[in-house]
Write a structure and sequence with these properties.
This protein is an all-alpha fold. Helices cover 72% and strands 0% of the residues. The termini are far apart.
Length: 956
């Protein structure tokens, strides 16, 4: 009996068996006696017998639960074993997997081996690879699992290149010692499309790599000829010609032969005694089929053979089209082209379709004579094909064929093709003609059009057909046009190429009306396409036509939806550059309105801010300061960090434009009135005023009460260093304003400042020049130890409590000096702590007295407030932090700080700009430095400076 999983005690089972046997004997006697007399008694006895055989639920429920638990436990153990096996397979190295392939051929091991085979080849010797890996490759290529074969095909190019590069003589000798052609053909003809596709990609990759290496070693070209052409292509042609069978058919024949041998070995032929029955009944034993079965099998095999041959044809044509560029021109003409010509008349349309596509690839490598004598007849043959798939494939190759034909033949072929295919019966063919019209028209450009700018000799029928695509389909009642593809979009996409080929002379007569109508199309994608190409059209047709026809489209698109607006903004500088200088100055004020129009889209603001760099180079300094600088400042104050960073990158360009105007004494300025009677002096003063205005904006960032403004200033300093600012300019203006940021309470500001100092140290020539110009700090001790302002900032950042701040300068400082600075700051902090406590106690006592005092009159209260304000202002005047100082004239700076060696004209320009800024604007008021220790970059008379001086004296 089968074990059903029930667990009964043996004693109970024996008692039940005895009881059942005695009961059966009694029932048998009763049935024998009364069966004929009383059938009802028999039914009742049978019912009683059935009830006695029913097992109570309580007796078998427990054993069933135990069996279920055991089954679940076994399943859990099995899952753990599989998991352990997977983990073990992952821990096995590729070399171990190669050598353990014979003992462990599990699916997971085969899959990992196919993936890691290139890695294993790099870790073994060449002889071991030939001896051990080549047999494994043959087994993986015929693996029964599609995933294993697909994985192997994906890594095949690396494996083949390993053998081809290391042993090229083995695969190029005559006769060849070894060839991968059978293995590759097997993969190319695999029943899985994924395997076949990856196999062809591997061949293309290998041929491309070997072709690039053939210039250094001619043996690689011989490998291509022997392996790819003679091995793979000739092998596929042998299958096509019936000289050999495909690998799959050969495998099936081998398997059938094995089956027949097994049938003869293990089965006997049964012979029916009746000759008539034996003659009527067909045999089903393998190898002894009747003639009827043999006939059906033969027909099936012939059909299967034709399918394999057709697949070989398509694979061969596709492979030739993919790698035809790797062969020499003579080999392509003599050996590859005859294959295309042979298969061009194949009865199967999908073979002809592949052959038509291969004609375009062949046109890219052959000369003009071969194209006109041999490729052109093939094209015309495919153009007359009855199947629309072939005609469509033929049309798609027309631009490639025209690229190699002469001008007369090209014009004649294109005109006849357009007239033939524009009214083709198949909609797909008509759509294909519309798809390639732009590329086809561009083939009429002269070869040197990039240098000369000359247009091409475009046939009139091609231009008229292209313009017909731009007709408004909504006004056409033809229902068939609604099934066509969106030809308006195709026309919009190809319009720049058509205008370039036809030339600006065709604008007024042929192109203008169609273009203006299409730019107002209701489709968003059409307007987006025109928005992205507006600057290209403007560059082709010239400034006058642009201002007359395109400026209105430009303004219209700036008020369109964001997708259309983005296309204009991405090329805003290019479009403004196509306008004349006078017209360009008229349109620059609209930039403020454009910025307001994108106020709700930070991405568009970022694009516009990035365009300001190129726009600044199109205008003089006055327009840059008047119209562009406010936008740069707005970008630096933007709520999105990406926009602020883009605005920071514009400042070096703006400063450079204005500074160049000052160096030229304002000769390039378009307006300079109200700065003197002398014209030359007037322009010079105006240029200095412009530079002063830029410096004021920069100074506002450095003194900003918002941490974002101070952070932007640090970023601007870094951008100026990367842009190549002079060390004298940086030392005179930017470095004194950068020093207080080392004590900023916001860590992000200190990080930005530390990053700037790190950029200075990376630029070694700039750092050396800056150290020569910057004066040593007054906090240096009397033993000769002197720290420049730059070095003090570096050590201050290195002592910062935040690791991100320290990370930018730790590689550029001396550890011993850093330890001294740490001890000095610690000692200073210990001395200042009682002073701070005393001041805080004094403030508390003053507050208590003020609370306890009686209410004075309003005059006394206002007087008290004014005295307090005066005290605060006196404290601020005593502060010598660079952040609290305004841009002072050179005389005042010389009296307050040590003299700097400034002798260049650029330095004088910067100082003059500071003079104008000081006289023109008041000093903004900012908060004092957050730290109790004053920044060491400038002299200080505060308590901290005195304490530091005393500490230095003690160390001396």
């Amino acid at each position: 009996m089968a074990d059903l999983g029930f667990d009964f005690p043996d004693d109970e089972y024996d008692q039940d068996a005895v009881f059942e046997e005695s009961e059966k004997e009694g029932s048998t006697s009763v049935n024998t006696t009364f069966s004929d007399a009383n059938p009802q008694i028999e039914e009742q006895q049978e019912h009683n017998t059935i009830e006695s055989e029913i097992v109570p639920f309580a007796e078998y429920s427990a054993p069933q639960d135990d069996a279920l638990i055991r089954a679940m436990t076994e399943e859990q153990h099995l899952g753990e074993e599989l998991e352990d096996e997977l983990l073990a397979d992952e821990n096995v190295t590729p070399i171990e997997r190669v050598y353990g392939f014979r003992e462990n051929d599990a699916l997971l091991n085969r899959l990992l081996l196919a993936k890691e085979l290139p890695v294993a080849l790099e870790e073994i010797t060449l002889s071991e690879a030939i001896e051990d890996v080549l047999p494994i490759m043959d087994k993986l290529a015929v693996d029964t699992d599609d995933t294993v074969r697909e994985t192997f095909a994906g890594e095949l190019d690396q494996v083949l290149l390993y053998f081809y590069k290391n042993t090229p003589a083995m695969f190029s000798s005559k006769p060849q010692e070894k060839s991968f052609a059978p293995l590759i053909i097997r993969l190319l003809l695999d029943r899985s499309t994924g395997v076949a596709s990856l196999g062809q990609q591997a061949v293309v990759s290998v041929v491309t790599e070997l072709r690039a290496l053939s210039d250094q070693n001619s043996a690689y070209q011989q490998v291509i000829d022997c392996e790819v052409f003679k091995g793979i292509i000739d092998g596929l042609m042998s299958i096509i010609d019936g000289k050999r069978k495909s690998p799959r058919l050969q495998d099936e024949e081998d398997q059938n032969a094995i089956n027949r041998d097994e049938a003869l070995r293990y089965h006997r032929v049964s012979i029916d005694d009746d000759p008539a029955t034996r003659s009527r009944r067909p045999s089903t034993t393998p190898g002894f089929e009747s003639s009827l079965n043999v006939h059906h099998a033969s027909a099936f095999e012939d059909e299967f053979d034709q399918g394999e041959i057709s697949l070989a044809k398509i694979t061969c044509i596709s492979l030739i089209a993919s790698i035809v560029g790797a062969f020499e021109v003579e080999k392509c003409i003599e050996e590859c082209l005859p294959i295309i010509e042979k298969l061009a008349s194949d009865p199967l349309f999908y073979v002809r379709k592949e052959a038509a596509a291969a004609v375009g690839s062949m046109a890219l490598v052959v000369d003009t004579k071969t194209a006109e004598e041999r490729l052109l007849p093939l094209f015309r043959q495919f153009a007359q094909d009855q199947v629309w798939h072939v005609r469509r494939s033929c049309i798609l190759t027309l631009p490639q064929i025209c690229s190699v034909l002469s001008e007369e033949t090209k014009a004649e072929l294109t005109v006849s093709s357009v007239e033939k295919f524009r009214n083709d019966d198949s909609r797909n063919v008509r759509n294909a003609m519309a798809d390639i019209i732009g590329d086809l028209i561009s083939k009429f450009l002269p070869p040197d059009w990039e240098l000369t700018g000359k247009p091409g000799n475009l046939p009139e029928p091609l231009l008229q057909y292209f313009l017909s695509l731009g007709l408004n389909a909504s006004n056409n009642n033809n229902q068939m046009l609604k099934l066509e593809i969106d030809r308006t979009y195709i026309c919009a996409y190809n319009f720049p190429a058509v205008v370039l080929t036809a030339g600006a002379d065709y604008w007024n007569s042929h192109l203008r009306d169609t273009y203006l109508n299409l730019t107002k199309d209701y489709q968003i994608k059409v307007r987006c396409t025109f928005a992205h190409s507006l600057h290209d059209i403007a560059r082709i047709i010239g400034p006058e036509r642009t201002e007359r026809d395109l400026v209105q489209i430009f303004a219209l698109y700036l008020m369109d939806i964001d997708d259309v607006k983005q296309g204009v903004l991405e090329h805003l500088a290019d479009f403004l550059g196509t306008l004349a200088a006078n017209s360009r100055n008229e349109y620059i004020p609209i930039l403020q309105e454009v910025w307001d129009g994108v106020s709700n889209n930070w991405h568009l603001r970022n694009i516009l801010a990035g365009q300001l760099i190129d726009i600044s180079l199109l205008f003089d300094a006055s327009h840059v300061v008047e119209c562009i600088l406010p936008l740069v400042v707005r970008a630096c104050h933007d709520e999105f960090a990406a926009v602020r960073e883009t605005g920071v990158s514009v400042f070096p360009v703006v400063l450079d434009v204005v500074k160049n105007a000052v160096e030229e004494d304002g000769e390039s300025l378009s307006q300079a009135e109200g700065y003197g009677d002398d014209i030359a002096e007037n322009k010079r003063n105006y240029a200095l005023a412009l530079l002063s205005h830029v410096m004021e904006r920069l100074d506002e960032f450095a003194r900003s009460e918002s941490y974002r403004g101070r952070l932007v200033f640090a970023q601007i300093c870094k951008a100026l260093i990367e842009a190549g600012i002079g060390a004298s300019d940086f030392a005179s203006f930017f470095l004194p304003r950068l020093a207080p940021l080392a004590y900023d309470p916001v860590v992000n500001v200190r990080i930005a400042a530390s990053r700037t100092i790190g950029a200075i140290y990376k630029n070694e020539p700039f750092r050396k020049e800056l150290n020569e110009i910057a004066a040593p700090s007054r906090t240096a001790n009397q033993t000769g130890e002197s720290l420049h302002a730059l070095e003090q900032m570096a050590y201050r950042f290195a002592l910062d409590k935040d690791s991100d701040v320290r990370s930018f300068v730790t590689d550029y400082i001396d550890s011993d000096m850093l330890e001294k600075q740490r001890k000095k700051e610690q000692a200073t902090a210990d001395i200042l702590k009682p002073v701070e406590n005393t001041q805080s106690n004094g403030e508390e006592e003053y507050e208590e007295e003020e609370e306890e005092g009686d209410n004075d009159d309003e005059d006394d209260e206002s007087k008290s407030i004014s005295d307090n304000d005066k005290l605060t202002s006196d404290t601020k005047e005593k502060s010598t932090s660079p952040m609290d100082q305004v841009i002072t004239p050179p005389e005042e700076k010389q009296s307050k700080t040590e003299p700097m060696d400034i002798s260049t004209d650029e330095d004088e320009i910067m100082l003059e700009a500071e003079d104008v800024a000081t006289s023109a604007t008041p000093s903004p008021v900012s908060s004092s430095p957050p730290s109790s220790i004053s920044p060491p970059s400038l002299p200080s008379h505060s308590t901290t400076a005195v304490v530091l001086q005393k500490q230095d004296d003690k160390e001396d």
